[in-house]
Structures are given as C-alpha cells and as structure tokens.
Design goal:
about 350 residues; 9 helices; 2 domains; nine-stranded mixed beta sheet; Rossmann fold; alpha/beta
C-alpha cells in the first residue's frame, strides 16, 4: 500500500489490476478522543493500518490523501473539482477508483462527479462509514474492502462491471446520482428510492447488469471543472408567505431555482405564487420542480395544483434527488447553459440521474 506521489511507478504493473483510493476524510478515518469523547481526524496511513486485509488483494493499490482531511460538511464544489482532477489526471494509470468520503454530503459529491466525468468508462466507488474504522463494531472495514473489490471487478470480456460513479454502503451498490442519505444512526445510511440497486454484496457480489450504465463507443474521458453556484432551493410549506418566495427569487445574480413541492409536484393555488414564478422566469431564472417525497416523481399534469406550475413554465425534475438536481444545475450553469437550452438539458437525463416518463 503506497501513497500516490504522481510518480511513474504508481499505478498498473503488467497483468495487475490497479486501484487508486482517494481519501478525503470523514468518519471512516477518525478516532475517538478518550478524554472528550469527540471524533477527530487521523492520517490515512493510520487508517490503512486498521485494514491489513487490503494487502491480501492481488491488486496494485495506491492512495491519494487530502491533507488535511476534510469533514464532509465542509466539502463542496472546490473539493469536487479536486477529486475530478485527481481521477482525470490518473485515469490511464488505474482500472478503478475508490473515494473515501464522509456520509453527510457523499450523495452530493457522487452526483456532481457523475456529471463532471463525461464518458466515464471505469468504476468510481464512493464509500465511508458510520463508525470509525478503528472501533470494534465498525462498518468501515467491510465497506472499504467491498468497494475495492467492486472497483476491480471485470466481466468475462475483461471490461469493468460498474463503469460509473456509485455509492457502496451496507451491502448495497447504488448509482451515485440516484442516492440520498436517509439514516444518521444505522449502518443502512443510504437509499436509492427511485432506481434499482446496481449490486448486492452477500456471500457473493451479485451485479444487476441491466441497471448499470455503460458509456457508448468507449469514448475518451472528458472531465469538466466549471461549476456555477448561482442557484437556490425554495421549499414550499403550508402557510408560506409571499415575502419569503420573493426574497429567494429576488437574490442578486440568481440563475436557477429548485422548487421543492408537495406530492407529485403540487403547489398551493395562490395567484401571487404564480406571479412571482413568472416574474422570476422573465428575469431569466430557470425554475425546476422536484418533489419533497423521498420516493416517486413529479407529474405536473396530474392535478390542477401541479398543472399551474407546468403552464407557467416550470421545468419537470421527474424523480431526481435534491442532491442530483442541485449538482446538475451547477454543472449545466458552469457549462454556460441558460434559458431554453438550460431547460432542455434539465429535462434530458445525461448521466442516468432520472427516469424520463411519458
């Protein structure tokens, strides 16, 4: 196990599968202070010392550690760009990538990377833990070992089993941009409510090939590093005042708004709400509708309370997660999309992030 120094001998040897572990921080690499009881970061080498089983893999495993490690609550677009650059700069050296990341924002980072790494043809597996890897009952060891095995897995033709950005947690492999954190206490921290799991790990790792995304024609990786943060999230709630809606929609230099609605994409029938949304769109702000429900999709034509949004130009977010739609907007805005072209891209799945319903 060696820390990657971007030298020529890091990566693949002839006949060996090469895996790069990118350690960003998070609970998996923490230790509990015996005096205060709080969790603090320790370095990646100490983390690896708790998982000697890594040495039993017949792979070339290298590592790249953030220094200092970053709590996932502090991870955002700048760190997403760093991770994307590490993968892109070392893409030809390695057969798969494992990203160790805190759980709180893991789904955001995985979603962002799914858009930023265009034409990805190798596994990028995010994982972490709810308990530090040094604790007796840790889930970190199993998560790390299985994530490495998934990143290295090949089919009968020698091609990667899962050539996309995904999250592995507690026996379940999920598409990264379909996943959300659901549990702050249990080991089943993540779920993909609107898309099938990509694999299940028991005695054997069983892959669901029909649900795994494969890049057509094996095009070369095209990384993207421009992200635009000029967006906001507006969550509807019973009794919401016009002043609140107007304040959000009136933010200076705002480019897009994620509107979190009820049920299948419904909003209260208030003339002032439609007026505010129409006025915002006339100022060039694109509004996209996602449901507050964990499971299900937006169908704005289903009820009058949703149809009013459809008629005033709000874009359908279908069954996108909030993590996915936020990071997709940052990506599309960063690429320069606006107006109707932005609306068109939002309504088109570009990395398997939603299911397009008729």
């Amino acid at each position: 196990m060696n820390e990657l120094k971007l030298t020529n001998n890091a990566g693949r040897r002839a006949g060996k599968t090469a895996i790069l572990i990118i350690y960003t921080g998070g609970t998996i690499g923490m230790y509990r202070n015996p005096e205060s009881g709080t969790l603090s970061n320790f370095d990646f080498k100490r983390l690896v010392s708790f998982v000697p089983e890594l040495q039993q893999f017949d792979y070339d495993i290298s590592s790249y550690a953030f220094d200092p490690p970053v709590d996932s609550s502090d991870i955002g677009p700048d760190q997403w760009v760093s991770i994307a650059r590490i993968i892109a700069d070392n893409y030809d050296r390695f057969d798969g990538f494992v990203v160790l990341h805190g759980t709180d924002t893991m789904a955001y980072t995985a979603s962002a990377l799914s858009f930023m790494l265009e034409n990805l043809g190798k596994p990028v597996v995010f994982t972490g833990s709810q308990l530090p890897v040094g604790e007796l009952r840790t889930d970190g060891k199993e998560n790390l070992l299985t994530a490495v095995e998934i990143a290295a897995a090949r089919d009968a033709d020698g091609q990667p089993m899962v050539p996309e950005v995904c999250i592995f947690f507690e026996n379940r492999l999920m598409r990264g941009n379909r996943t959300t954190k659901i549990n702050a206490e249990g080991f089943n921290a993540f779920r993909s409510f609107n898309y099938h799991s990509l694999a299940h790990a028991g005695i054997h790792i069983v892959y669901e090939r029909q649900y795994i995304h494969h890049t057509a024609y094996r095009l070369p990786l095209k990384p993207h590093y421009r992200l635009d943060r000029r967006l906001a999230v507006l969550t509807l709630f019973p009794g919401i005042r016009r002043e609140i809606v107007a304040a959000v929609l009136g933010i200076d230099d705002l480019r897009a708004v994620v509107l979190k609605t009820y049920g299948s994409g419904n909003a209260p029938q208030r003339p002032w709400l439609i007026e505010e949304l129409q006025a915002a769109q006339q100022r060039g702000i694109v509004v996209v509708n996602v449901t507050q429900c964990a499971e299900g999709a937006v169908e704005m034509a289903r009820y009058e309370t949703g149809k009013q949004l459809l008629l005033c130009g709000v874009v359908n977010g279908y069954d996108s997660t909030i993590e996915s739609i936020i990071t997709k907007l940052m990506f599309l805005l960063g690429e320069g999309y606006q107006g109707d072209t932005l609306r068109q891209q939002l309504a088109t799945p570009i990395a398997g992030e939603f299911t397009l319903h008729n």
